[in-house]
Design goal:
The strands form five sheets. The chain has a seven-stranded mixed β-sheet, with helices on both faces. It is 38% helix and 15% strand. The protein is built from twelve helices and 15 strands. β8 and β9 form a beta hairpin. The protein has two domains: 256 residues, 3-Layer(aba) Sandwich (Aspartate Aminotransferase, domain 2); 129 residues, Aspartate Aminotransferase, domain 1, CATH 3.90.1150.10.
Length: 395
């Protein structure tokens, strides 16, 4: 049996007709840039996320970039984030001229550790004469950028308390977590809605995927939303009048039309992923594999959160990862490593001065964690085949 990491064919077959109709409608309208489809999809995401503003942009990466630009974060500033995330999380900070500051992850969830964040601020930062929080090298700390990894929200209550204490913005990288829920301040909140702003990605492999690149910024701040809308269109408020330097960060009308067809199915798809994750867990427990591999953490299960985890990826870990992956590949089971190096070890960030050993949990995860096949339509037969292959390996 061949088991792919992700298979979008069934999803496409089920929605082929309405997707084709949506594409034909865009072509017939001849409105290709920031037209009615973008506005309708923005409204739908705003309603879905229960947040006043949703601004469509060209990708999840550009969503992060535009948020940083809109907040005026740049040269002389620093933003604290995780070293265990997709490259864009740290790179966008550097692209605006600010300094990425990394703190280690929680070994169970892979998300940024709130306790490590607190320890860094207490040990390394000070308040200068003007009241600004500064790093040892003198940069002004402006924001915390947590990434909700693999479909699970970070410890946002703890992060929010830290941000309020030090007067820092919280920018949520929710690219992998659209619809994931967290009990924030006693209320159920969705990923991306608990900070100053949140970035969503609709890359084709995401739980809600476009037919290309697409992203969204969600926020409650009216002024910030206005700045974002101006920045995404070359800094124009009135056409051909540029108060600021922005960029071409617009969401494509065609992608918005396709995503509007898919959005009503998102929660069902996430529930199907969660059911697949439950099946994996039950099978791994039945076969005794939980003594050999570490399963994904579910810290919010049982807290009245239907979408406590949306399982964008199903990530397990073992010190024998690489030889296990070779075994699975021979059985035609596709897997993936997210991520083989912490950002602090990437060559492009060498100028930051980090070295191997600085973030032990990140480095351990980078050497042990990998993703198994998971998608809404994966069959239980395919999952049993995966589990049996792993049992075979350890036997």
């Amino acid at each position: 049996m061949r088991v792919p990491l992700l298979d979008l064919s069934e999803q496409y077959r089920a929605l082929a007709e309405p997707i084709h109709e949506a594409i034909e409608a865009v072509l017939a309208s001849r409105r290709f840039i920031l037209g009615p489809q973008v506005k309708a999809f923005e409204k739908a995401i705003s309603d879905y996320s229960n947040t006043p503003h949703a601004i469509g942009v060209s990708s999840g990466t550009d969503a992060l970039l535009v948020i940083l630009m809109a907040l005026g974060i740049g040269r002389g500033d620093a933003v604290i984030t995780t070293p265990y995330a997709f490259f864009a999380t740290g790179a966008c900070i550097a692209r605006v001229g600010a300094k990425p500051i990394f703190v280690d992850i929680d070994p169970d969830t892979y998300n940024i550790s709130a306790s490590a964040l607190q320890k860094y601020l207490e040990k390394n930062c000070r308040t200068d004469s003007s009241g600004d929080l500064t790093t040892p090298d003198g940069e002004k700390v402006r924001a915390i950028l947590p990434a909700h990894l693999f479909g699970l929200c970070c410890e946002m209550n703890a992060i929010q308390k830290i941000s309020e204490r030090y007067q820092l913005h919280v920018i949520e990288d929710a690219a992998q977590a659209i619809g994931a829920e967290y009990r924030f301040g006693g209320k159920i909140a969705k990923a991306g809605t608990m900070g100053k702003a949140g970035a969503l990605s609709f890359y084709p492999s995401k739980n809600l995927g476009a037919a290309g690149d697409a992203g969204m910024i969600i926020c409650s701040d009216d002024e910030l939303a206005t700045k974002v809308r101006i920045l995404r269109e070359h800094g124009m408020e009135l056409r051909y009048y540029h108060r600021v330097i922005g960029g071409n960060f617009r969401l494509d009308e065609m992608q918005a039309a396709i995503l509007s067809v898919k959005l009503p199915h998102l929660d069902n798809w996430s529930a199907a992923r969660r059911a697949a994750a439950d099946f994996y867990r039950a099978e791994f427990m039945r076969t005794g594999l939980t003594e050999k591999i570490t399963l994904p953490a579910e810290p919010y299960r049982g807290r009245g959160l239907p979408n406590h985890h949306i399982y964008h990826q199903y990530v397990i870990r073992t010190p024998r990862r690489d030889v296990l992956r070779e075994h699975l590949a021979r059985r035609e089971i596709e897997t993936a490593i997210y991520y083989p190096l912490g950002l602090h070890e990437q060559k492009c960030f060498a100028y930051l001065g980090y070295k191997k050993g600085d973030f032990q949990e990140t480095e351990r995860a980078a050497g042990e964690a990998f993703a198994l096949p998971i998608y809404p339509e994966i069959s239980r037969e395919a999952q049993r085949y995966v589990v049996d292959a792993i049992v075979e390996f350890f036997e």
